[in-house]
Amino acid sequence: MNIIKAEILLNEQNLVVFQIWNSEYPKKLAFQKTEDFNEYLNKLEKPNHYLLQNNENKIIGWAIDFIRDNEKWFAIIIDSKEQEKGRGKLLLTELKKYNVELNGWVIDHNNDLKKTGEKYKSPLDFYVRNNFEVLSEIRMENEILSAVKIKWKRNKA
Which of 4, 12, 101, 157 is the most exposed place for a label (fewest CB within 10 A)? Predict the structure, then answer.
């Protein structure tokens, strides 16, 4: 396993991340075209991409951190064939090396479907196991997303 950190994705990296995004997130969060995905990425302030590669240098996971409303936010996606093997923890550990705080939106239910028709499984338990606080009073509720805010802060020990 190898993690590459980059401020900008190369075209081929961008395409793989776009495909993982569309296959792993709920279908209502999918992008129709890579141009739409690029537009989303281009609006993020000070992004850092983290690409998780397997031993054949194939991208199997992606994380990003960025600034939103003067806070550091993040997202992680792992190819479903690679989930529950410690891959998400690898990316999360890498993010934690470079940040003192991380904020995210997490879908906290199992009601959404992926493009494949499979149920999207909420990763909330994963984040709780990795020392994130669930801020249940802060939610995003709209026609596309129902999610709770999570936050991690580095211990000052």
Answer: 157
